[in-house]
Structures are given as structure tokens and as C-alpha cells.
């Protein structure tokens, strides 16, 4: 005899896309909207109000979104509704008994954690990365209650990524650990955190080869002048942006996001606001003669707020635009690596003190005492250094 309840499996419920109601049995349905954008659990039942005749009208009771309410939880809620019906109570108006603290799903807890910490992030990309990893990669565990997640669940998420994209997998592990730690603090978990690395997952997953910070492939500074000549001949927006980035020793994001309001061409200053700087502090960049020429030339055909606009005036260049310029020119280096080229040049070819070269790169002082007493950004000395860097690259008077 065909079963009338529990027709759906968790996998079927997660993969169904056909619009309409899909029965689990005894009144519980997975309802998918015509455009597929809404997937929710509903409980259908008949209820006869006072004065009505017959079996009563068909009523619908919503049990929550399928993205946050698991199949098991939907069945629990449907069972509670049936209990009310059997007792002669309308489940839509009766209070369905639940634990004093309802245990949230991983999806609900992840959303709560994100909401509490994302206001402290300056970079929208950072927020998107957290949300994407906790949504796409964690899809298998999102419907699970946080107190039901085990080591095996965590490994099922991490193993497919661990050797393929180790940096992403490591960050994902830390984010899962943070969500489950938050669940424990709120009283939703009592067991040890299954995403913990030290003394736990380090025995189950191979040790990750850590990236060495700062080792971006760099072009030897002796070869930079030839590249700058080629960039100058190109004249494309991407090539000009890369040339400007190298001239100023800036990070690519700072240059690509540059706005006209940040420039004082009469004084030769580019002021990058704190919200666009990695260190969170405003940074004044002295512009060499060539850097000023690039900005002044673009100002003639200015179409929007961005100095280096993308295909649309109000949108910046693609994040890969500068790297693609290097690939087309067959230059084996990264954009960030030119900061290393500049630093090596300053150390080898000039007598510039270390603190001035570091200030030109907008690096923060490691010595906290020295940082506390530093009251100048060494602008005038940096201005001479950046003009010398430009002269070296264009083989002028350096």
C-alpha cells in the first residue's frame, strides 16, 4: 500500500523546481511559486466555522520558507497542527506549542551572525564573499538545526574544496566555526564545535599550504620602463589606469575606484578617502608630472564621477581589467607586484630612508610607539621620490 505521509526526501525537497504544490502527505506540501523564486512549506486542512455546513473550507497555513525550514522541521510543525485539529482547534488561531527557545537552522544562524558583524566592514566585497560562501558552499547544511550539525556534516562541505581551493576552504571553515560558536553562546548548542581546527579537524584534513603574504609575482624594476612605454602607446582606459597605478605605487582598487572629487591637479595631490584605504586612514598621494598628465587628459572627456570608468560611465573597470592588459602584453607579473618593483627600486637605486618608501606604499608602522608620535605623512619627501620614480621609468633626468 502506498504511503500517505513522508513522500518527499530531503534531497528531493532541495532539488524540486517545478512550480506548484508537491505533497509530502497528510496535508503537508512544498509550494513553489510560478517563477520559482519562492519555495515554502504549507499545511492544507479543512475547517468549518460556526454556521458553515459541510466539511468546511480548505485553509492554508504557512510553515516557513524552504530555505530556512528543513523538511524534518516542516513535518514537526505539520504534526503539531494536526494535534490541534484533532482537539477541535483551528491551528491558524491556536498557539502551536514550541520549546521556550526554538533551535534555529544553520541558515538562520548564519544570517543572524552576518547581520551582527557586517556593519563593521568597509569593503562591500568582503560582505559579499561571506554571504556567498555561507550560502552556496554551505547549502547541504543550511536546512539543518545548528544542534544537529556534526563533524561529518562539516567535512562534507569542506572536503570537495580543501585541496582544490585551499584558501577559500580555510576561510569557509573559519566562518562555519564562527556561526556554530555563536549558536553555542546563545544556548542552541552544547556539543563541541565540529568546525574547530586545532585538536579536531587538523587530524582529519591535510595541512593546508599557507600562502606567503606579500609574494605577488613582480616585474624586476629594470624592466618596468619598457612596459611603461608600451602602456603609454596603448592609450586605452585600462592601460592608462595601469600606468597611473604603477606611477603612484597604489593598490589597484584605489586607482580603479578613483573619483574626480579626490584630485587637486593644481597642487598635484590625490587624496584617497579612508573608506577606500586598506588601513582605514586617509592617504595623500603626490602626483608626478606624468601622473598629472594622465588625469588631466582624461578630464577633457570626463563623463561621470569615475576617473577610470568601465564600459558604462558610472561603473568602474572590471576587477580583472588591469591583469588582462598584462596578459595581452605577455608580462609575467601581477598588478600588485609593481608595488614590490617600486620598493626594490627605492632600496637599490635611491638613498631614500625606509620610512619614506613605506609611507609611499601607505603601509602602517609596525612600531606602535613610533606610530603614536608620527605627526606627518612625509608628503614633500614622498613627492620627490615619486617624481624620481617617474623619471626613471621614462628615462628622463633620473
Task: Give a nutshell description of this structure.
This protein has 398 residues and is an alpha+beta fold. It has helices at residues 10-15, 71-86, 106-117, 124-137, 151-162, 166-185, 224-234, 237-248, 252-256, 289-300, 321-328, 337-349, 354-360, 368-373, 379-393, and strands at 20-25, 28-32, 39-47, 57-65, 263-264, 269-272, 283-286.
Describe the structure.
With 398 residues, the protein is of the alpha+beta class. It has three domains: 10-86, Integrase, DNA-binding domain (Double Stranded RNA Binding Domain); 106-203, Tyrosine recombinase, N-terminal domain (DNA polymerase, domain 1, Orthogonal Bundle), CATH 1.10.150; 221-393, hpI Integrase, Chain A (Orthogonal Bundle), CATH 1.10.443. 42% of the residues lie in helices and 10% in strands. It is built from 15 helices and seven strands. The strands form two sheets. It has a four-stranded antiparallel β-sheet, with helices on one face. A hairpin with a 4-residue loop joins β5 and β6. α3 runs antiparallel to α4 (124-137), α4 crosses α6 (166-185) and α13 (354-360) packs across α15 (379-393). The protein is elongated and about 95 Å long. The relative contact order is 0.07.
Quickly give the CATH architecture of the largest domain.
Answer: Orthogonal Bundle
For the secondary structure, the number of strands is 7
The computed structural class is: alpha+beta
CATH level-4 homologous superfamily of the largest domain? Intergrase catalytic core
As for the CATH topology of the largest domain, it is: hpI Integrase, Chain A
Contiguous helical run count: 15
CATH class of the largest domain: Mainly Alpha
Strand order of the largest sheet: 1-2-3-4
Give me the Rg, rounded: 30 Å
Mean pLDDT: 86
Strand content: 5-15%
Residue runs with pLDDT of under 50 for 5 or more positions: 96-100, 368-373
Largest β sheet strand count, sense and barrel closure: 4 strands, antiparallel
| Portion of residues within helices | 40-55%
Number of domains: 3
Amino acid at each position: 500500500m502506498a504511503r500517505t505521509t513522508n513522500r518527499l526526501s530531503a534531497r528531493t525537497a532541495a532539488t524540486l523546481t517545478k512550480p506548484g504544490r508537491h505533497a509530502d502527505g497528510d496535508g503537508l506540501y512544498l509550494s513553489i511559486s510560478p517563477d520559482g523564486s519562492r519555495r515554502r512549506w504549507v499545511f492544507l486542512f479543512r475547517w468549518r466555522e460556526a454556521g458553515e455546513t459541510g466539511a468546511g473550507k480548505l485553509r492554508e497555513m504557512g510553515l516557513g520558507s524552504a530555505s530556512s525550514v528543513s523538511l524534518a522541521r516542516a513535518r514537526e510543525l505539520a504534526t503539531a497542527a494536526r494535534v490541534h485539529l484533532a482537539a477541535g482547534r483551528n491551528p491558524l488561531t491556536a498557539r502551536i506549542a514550541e520549546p521556550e527557545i526554538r533551535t534555529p537552522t544553520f541558515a538562520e544562524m548564519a544570517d543572524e551572525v552576518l547581520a551582527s558583524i557586517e556593519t563593521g566592514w568597509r569593503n562591500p566585497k568582503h560582505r559579499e564573499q561571506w554571504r556567498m560562501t555561507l550560502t552556496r558552499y554551505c547549502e547541504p547544511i543550511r536546512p539543518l538545526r545548528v544542534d544537529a550539525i556534526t563533524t561529518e556534516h562539516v567535512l562534507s562541505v569542506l572536503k570537495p574544496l580543501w585541496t582544490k581551493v585551499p584558501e577559500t576552504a580555510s576561510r569557509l571553515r573559519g566562518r562555519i566555526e564562527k556561526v556554530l560558536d555563536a549558536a553555542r553562546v546563545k544556548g542552541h548548542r552544547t556539543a563541541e564545535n565540529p568546525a574547530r581546527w586545532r585538536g579536531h579537524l587538523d587530524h582529519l584534513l591535510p595541512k593546508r599550504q599557507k600562502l606567503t603574504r606579500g609574494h605577488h609575482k613582480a616585474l624586476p624594476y629594470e624592466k618596468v620602463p619598457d612596459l611603461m612605454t608600451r602602456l603609454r602607446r596603448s592609450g586605452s582606459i585600462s592601460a592608462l589606469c595601469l600606468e597611473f597605478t604603477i606611477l603612484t605605487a597604489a593598490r589597484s582598487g584605489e586607482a580603479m575606484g578613483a573619483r574626480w572629487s579626490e584630485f587637486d591637479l593644481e597642487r598635484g595631490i590625490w587624496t584617497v578617502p579612508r573608506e577606500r584605504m586598506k588601513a582605514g586612514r586617509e592617504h595623500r598621494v603626490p602626483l608626478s608630472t606624468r601622473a598629472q598628465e594622465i588625469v588631466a587628459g582624461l578630464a577633457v572627456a570626463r563623463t561621470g564621477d569615475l576617473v577610470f570608468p568601465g564600459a558604462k560611465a558610472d561603473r568602474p573597470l572590471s576587477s580583472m581589467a588591469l591583469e588582462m592588459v598584462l596578459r595581452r602584453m605577455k608580462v609575467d607579473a601581477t598588478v600588485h607586484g609593481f608595488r614590490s618593483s617600486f620598493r626594490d627600486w627605492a632600496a637599490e637605486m635611491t638613498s631614500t630612508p625606509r620610512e619614506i618608501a613605506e609611507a609611499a606604499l601607505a603601509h602602517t608602522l609596525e612600531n606602535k610607539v613610533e606610530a603614536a608620535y608620527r605627526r606627518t605623512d612625509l608628503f614633500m619627501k614622498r613627492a620627490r621620490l615619486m617624481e624620481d620614480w617617474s623619471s626613471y621609468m621614462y628615462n628622463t633626468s633620473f
